[in-house]
Amino acid sequence: MRFLPTDIPDVVLIEPQVFGDERGFFMETYQQEKFAAAGITASFVQDNHSGSRQGILRGLHYQIRQPQGKLVRVVVGAVWDVAVDLRRGSPTFGRWVATELSAENRRQLWIPPGFAHGFYVLSPWAEVIYKVTDYYAPQWDRTLRWDDPTVGIAWPLLNGQPPILSAKDAQGRWWDEAEKFDGFR
């Protein structure tokens, strides 16, 4: 595995080593010792799997208490995956980083606790699998608006059409109103 820093060093792009032949392929998606050697020592408590059609935008989600680190990968299709730093005191507070994750490129993205996370579906259908470091706590669930001009995410919207949002995501909070994380370490 290769662990590649992004423009926000705490968010890490992971490229697996893929072994393939005429039968198919094999790759490790998680190996505790390799992740620890790369500085990712999180313990995972839950795996999630979601499927979405093209044009769907999910996010930008975070839990203000019981924050979740996420290890995200795509097993069908392709998404534009985004992380926004909500950690006050962080040198990258308020900045975002994004990358395309796809079944074809087999990359993963590590997003530590303290970030809002979301993705936009580029392919006709996509399935996203992600490990999390804490359990879902609906009472602490928050959403940052996907289109907040202060954050300024450059979403690659297909044909310039607005994304399809859930009712919850359509009511996300603007940057100035959104709860942030204190005590960056």
Structure description:
- The protein has 185 residues and is mainly beta.
- The protein has one domain: Jelly Rolls.
- Helix content is 5%, strand content 41%.
- It has two helices and 13 strands, in the order E-E-E-E-H-E-E-E-E-E-E-E-E-E-H.
- It has helices spanning 32-37, 167-170; strands at 2-5, 12-15, 18-21, 24-27, 46-53, 57-63, 70-76, 78-85, 96-102, 108-111, 115-121, 125-132, 141-143.
- The strands form three sheets. Strands 1-2-10-7-12-5 form a six-stranded antiparallel beta sheet, with no helix packed on it. The protein has a five-stranded antiparallel beta sheet with strand order 9-8-11-6-13, with no helix packed on it.
- The radius of gyration is 16 Å and the shape is globular.
